[in-house]
């Protein structure tokens, strides 16, 4: 159990750092996305000459922004979920349900990660329609997204596995 606890501590630290870096970069990407869209609006409606690339650039920036924050959002329980069942079953049953769901999510995320790597690899065969960039660099967002979500899933699994029911004595001791 001590090994799992120390592994969890390391994983929490890694996920904290990934989350902070991802959020910081995501804000820059949002600003660039807004600037790209505003540039297109100005060019189209002020100069009556639309540029060919801002929409595709904004879409790529939005994909990357989402990919950089998805793992941290998953980790913090910010995705839509139905968790009222946990309030009506005993702690041990709720814990087992959480472990099963996290194991299923892990299996799905592994499969998505593998498919995303294959998709990234295929992206080197084509380039973006309106600017000279291989689509692979846009598609790289998906392995990053699913990779960070896998790390978050492992952390959540370890937390759930190691969690103990809080009793009035342990709550007052803290």
N-to-C span: 21 Å
Any low-confidence stretches, pLDDT <50, length ≥5?
none
Number of helices: 6
Largest sheet: none
What structural category arises from helix and sheet content?
Answer: mainly alpha
Brief summary of the model shown:
The protein is mainly α. Helices cover 75% and strands 0% of the residues. It has helices at residues 2-45, 54-75, 91-122, 135-139, 141-162, 168-173.
Describe the structure.
With 174 residues, the protein is mainly α. It has six helices and no strands. The mean pLDDT is 90.
What key phrases describe this protein's structure?
174 residues, 6 helices, 75% helix, elongated
What is the element layout, followed by pairings?
Blueprint: H1 2-45, H2 54-75, H3 91-122, H4 135-139, H5 141-162, H6 168-173
């Amino acid at each position: 159990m001590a090994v799992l606890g120390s592994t969890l501590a390391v994983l929490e630290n890694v996920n904290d750092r990934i989350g902070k870096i991802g959020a910081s970069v995501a804000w820059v990407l949002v600003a660039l996305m807004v600037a790209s869209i505003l540039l297109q609006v100005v060019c189209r409606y002020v100069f009556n000459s639309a540029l060919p690339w801002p929409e595709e650039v904004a879409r790529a920036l939005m994909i990357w922004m989402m990919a950089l924050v998805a793992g941290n959002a998953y980790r913090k329980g910010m995705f839509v979920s139905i968790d009222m069942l946990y309030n009506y079953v005993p702690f041990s049953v709720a814990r087992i349900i959480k472990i099963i769901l996290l194991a299923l999510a892990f299996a799905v995320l592994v499969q998505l990660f593998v498919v995303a790597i294959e998709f990234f690899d295929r992206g080197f065969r084509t380039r973006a329609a309106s600017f000279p960039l291989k689509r692979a660099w846009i598609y790289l967002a998906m392995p990053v997204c699913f990779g960070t979500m896998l790390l978050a899933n492992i952390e959540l699994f370890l937390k759930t596995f190691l969690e103990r029911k809080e009793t009035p004595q342990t709550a007052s001791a803290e």
